[in-house]
């Protein structure tokens, strides 16, 4: 029996950033694939982290999605341990959020708030709402 290979956390992070940006600019996987010269299935694999994005392909994605290369690595927090790459406990939750429609819409709306003070207030509001217990 072969062991199922899990994606590298860096590849998953880069893929999630590709998906987030693609959705923020309202681009389909088909369209991104066409512009990159790959199928939409290949774009899906990149976004899930199942397939690693080459440097030249990442450059193309940055050009098409109009972001600097660094964008794809923003927010990645790595800790090198004796075993290698270690993920934080919040990592799966962050990727689930980025891969949800609500998460993309919330991140998109939040990123359009220009005033840092207002952004902090929105964050405080969301934290407070997240801590509330609702009875139904």
Low-pLDDT segments: 78-84
CATH level 1 name of the largest domain: Mainly Alpha
Helix percent band: 55-70%
Q: How many individual domains?
A: 2
CATH homologous group name of the largest domain: lambda repressor-like DNA-binding domains
Adjacency order of strands in the biggest sheet: 1-2
Give me the Rg, rounded: 17 Å
Helical stretch tally: 7
CATH architecture of the largest domain: Orthogonal Bundle
Query: Distance N terminus to C terminus?
Result: 47 Å
Please state the overall shape, judged from the principal axes of the Cα atoms.
Answer: globular
State the secondary-structure class: mainly alpha
What integer is the average pLDDT?
82
Number of strands: 2
Q: Fill in the CATH topology of the largest domain.
A: 434 Repressor (Amino-terminal Domain)
Task: Give an overview in words.
By secondary structure, the protein is mostly helical. It has 2 domains: 1-89, 434 Repressor (Amino-terminal Domain) (Orthogonal Bundle), CATH 1.10.260; 100-136, no CATH class. The chain is built from 7 helices and 2 strands, in the order H-H-H-H-E-E-H-H-H. The chain has helices spanning 9-24, 29-36, 40-48, 55-65, 91-98, 101-111, 116-131; strands spanning 79-81, 84-86. A two-stranded antiparallel ribbon has the order 1-2.
Key words describing this protein structure:
136 residues; mainly alpha; 434 Repressor (Amino-terminal Domain); 2 domains; 2 strands; globular
């Amino acid at each position: 029996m072969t062991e199922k290979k899990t994606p590298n956390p860096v590849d998953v992070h880069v893929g999630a950033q590709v998906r987030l940006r693609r959705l923020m600019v309202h681009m389909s996987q088909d369209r991104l694939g066409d512009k990159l010269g790959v199928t939409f299935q290949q774009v899906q694999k990149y976004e899930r982290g199942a397939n690693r994005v080459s440097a030249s392909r990442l450059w193309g994605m940055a050009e098409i999605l109009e972001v600097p290369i660094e964008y794809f690595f923003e927010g990645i927090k790595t800790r090198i341990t004796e075993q290698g790459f270690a993920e934080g406990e919040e990592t799966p939750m962050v990727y689930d959020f980025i891969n949800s429609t609500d998460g993309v819409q919330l991140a998109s709306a939040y990123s359009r708030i220009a005033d840092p003070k207002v952004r902090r207030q929105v964050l405080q509001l969301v934290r407070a709402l997240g801590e509330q217990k609702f009875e139904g």
